[in-house]
Amino acid sequence: MLLDTDNGVLLKQLRIGSEERDEDSSSLYRWWIVGAILLVLSAGAGAALVALRGRPVAVELATAAAPASGTGNAAILQATGYVTARRQATVSAQITGTLIQALIEEGQRVQSGQVLARLDDTSQRASLEQSQAQLNAAQAALEQYEAQLEKARRDVQRSEELAMKGAVSQQDLDTQRTQVRTLSSQLESQRRQVDLARAQVKGAEVQLSFTVIKAPFSGVITAKAAQLGETLSPMSAGGGYTRTGIGTIVDMDSLEIEVDVNEAYLHRVGPDQPAEAVLDAYPDWKIPAHVIAIIPTADRSKATVKVRVGIDTKDPRILPDMAVRVSFLEHDTKDAAHAAPVKGVLVPVSAIVQRNGQSVVFTVDGDRAHAQPVTPGQSFGDLRLVEGIGGGARVVRTPPAEVDDGTRVSAAK
């Protein structure tokens, strides 16, 4: 009997209560929910990663340019710069006035002395008329003094003849002679007044001419700065309502090139040295050029010296502020024997990046970027020679960190 009781107690202890079963079921259900959520999140993250990898990366592209070989002479140095105009002016009025006529537009070619604009000349014309009236009055007074002087001289002559006969006293004769000298002085003073009036008329005419704005030299209008009704002044009056110029004129015959040459290679450049220029806008057009002068000052921050390069062939496609690359050529074959030929192609310095300890340039073929190992060479401003890719290849200008070999890319707009 005692044995049966003990067995019943043991069986009761081993039986799982309903509360314990409920707690275990709830815990299992919670873990299942958590696992499902994590699975969904992982799947979403994977899908997002696949979508991001499939989306092209926007990049800025540049073209690798082959160094110029010259016209029979080898290029011994290359530099970048811009087209500049030696003769350029912002045409302005010499007086303050309201613009009533503008006869220029951007791109218009004008000749020296051509009328570009007119100001309101009401005040200047009134001043001219007033000065002319003063001149007329001064001339009339001059004629009056001349007549009086002529009469006084005749009176003195008669009195001198009568004085010899004793008909006129010496005192009356002296009085008449004094009158002649007085009138002579007044006449001379009035002549000076007439000269002054003439000068005032001339000044008024000059002021009136200032209301007509003319081209100081022949050239092309590159900017129109004022519109009808605006106030023009040679000096800014503040407040933003006064224009200091009607427009900008550039003498296209004075265009030349300014480039920065690294101090370390300045010995390769000399006056009258032949050169060849290539505009970024026309990479296949080689323009004959020559060195005009080396400006005798250096840029301390960039360690460069500015060199002026003349353009031998003028062309309307050459415009101010265009980016240009200049290849300096050897003077003769003797110099060529000592000059190392320029090898490789020119790419932007920012296109060269480090990947796995190696210098690479990302070339673009279709919509894919490909990492091309290169050997960097000499720098020319913001360009650098590299060996490993060919001329004309499209390269990524500044490759983002996410760009790798095979990454889809698109040209940034």
In short:
The protein has helices at residues 2-14, 18-54, 122-165, 170-209, 333-338; strands spanning 57-59, 61-63, 75-85, 88-91, 97-102, 109-110, 115-119, 212-214, 219-224, 231-232, 242-243, 247-250, 255-262, 274-279, 282-299, 304-311, 323-329, 345-348, 352-355, 358-365, 368-373, 375-380, 383-387, 394-396, 409-411.
Description:
It is built from five helices and 25 strands. With 413 residues, it is an alpha+beta fold. The protein folds into four domains: 58-65 and 345-411, conserved putative lor/sdh protein from methanococcus maripaludis s2 fold; 75-86 and 252-331, Efflux pump adaptor protein, beta barrel domain (Elongation Factor Tu (Ef-tu), domain 3), CATH 2.40.30.170; 88-120 and 211-250, OB fold (Dihydrolipoamide Acetyltransferase, E2P); 124-206, Helix Hairpins, CATH 1.10.287. The strands form seven sheets. A six-stranded antiparallel barrel has the order 3-13-16-15-14-17. Strands 8-7-5-10-11 form a five-stranded mixed beta sheet, with no helix packed on it. A four-stranded antiparallel beta sheet has the order 4-12-9-6, with no helix packed on it. Helix 3 packs antiparallel against helix 4. It is elongated, with a radius of gyration of 46 Å. The N and C termini lie far apart (96 Å). Residues 47-52 and 333-339 have low confidence and may be disordered.
